[in-house]
Write a structure and sequence with these properties.
Length: about 200
Amino acid sequence: MDKKNFQMSRPHPWHGINIGLDSPKIVKAYIEIIPNDLIKYEICKETGYIKVDRPQKFSSVPPTLYGFIPQTYSAEKTAALSKIGDHGDSDPVDICVLSELPINRADIIMEVRVIGGIRLIDTGEVDDKIVAVLNCDTFYSGVSDISQINPVVIDRLRHYFLSYKTIPGEAIKTQIESIYGALEAYKVIECGREDYNKHFKK
């Protein structure tokens, strides 16, 4: 191998990966957590590597692949789409990805088709969860909107996000403002792109 042509460092998953040419309909997703992970992993914003955030405290575990959309940010534009949230959560826009067959590792990127989302409010912060399907998955080839997904799948996502930070005896920290279809999800991604450009491409 010619060492002169070898890239010595990988792109940062948040800042160095392109969102995709067909955004907001088809985007890249970086996966941090796989279904039923008992440890909450997330990207280290400084290094770009996966880090351990915390063990899952209780029995609520993610029902889908979970990560974020590169070069997005939840701030002013994203928060303005909410009727009750105060501000964005200052993180990349999160994404939940459905796949028929199990994908058993994280720290990967994939091309996904956006079909909708969940507007989660976490202690006043707007924390949208985009819902997508693996774009090359023939099982979901005819799916273009969240309304075409079995309601049981959406109920599992609702339950996870309403319970994953709940500690017995304390007030519930999260609430779901709305579950929306593909068109609203496109707006969230576009606003997330605008927020990213404002805060990181000055």
